[in-house]
Amino acid sequence: MPKYRLHYGALDDFYAQTAGEVVPYLRERHMMGDDTEREFMRRLAIELCEWSGGNFHYGSRDALAGSMIRNGLLELMPETC
Predict the structure, then answer these.
(1) How far apart are CA 55 and CA 16, in angstroms?
(2) Residue 81: which pLDDT band, with cuts at 50, 70 and 90?
(3) What is the pTM of this model?
(4) pLDDT tens digit sequence for 21-56
(5) Which of 6, 9, 35, 43 is the most interior residue, by most CB within 10 Å?
(6) What is the DSSP string of the chain?
């Protein structure tokens, strides 16, 4: 399973099938995780804009994860044997 590194707050590594799984990963750990997923992604995109100054698209999990990758907040870690 691929390993991702999150550069939002403290460095954090997690395993997921796709980068889009960063959304439920962050939602579980967020103080206000009782929003719908759509509301959470919108609020997260706003927070990420304020955090990094980049543009974040939140139309889907994959769109938000792609924005995080482009802005350097999420990275796919190389496989090690």
Answers:
(1) 24
(2) low
(3) 0.89
(4) 999 999 988 776 578 999 999 999 999 999 999 999
(5) 6
(6) --EEEEEESEEEEEE-SSGGGHHHHHHHHSTTTTS-HHHHHHHHHHHHHHHHS-----SSHHHHHHHHHHTTSEEEPPP--
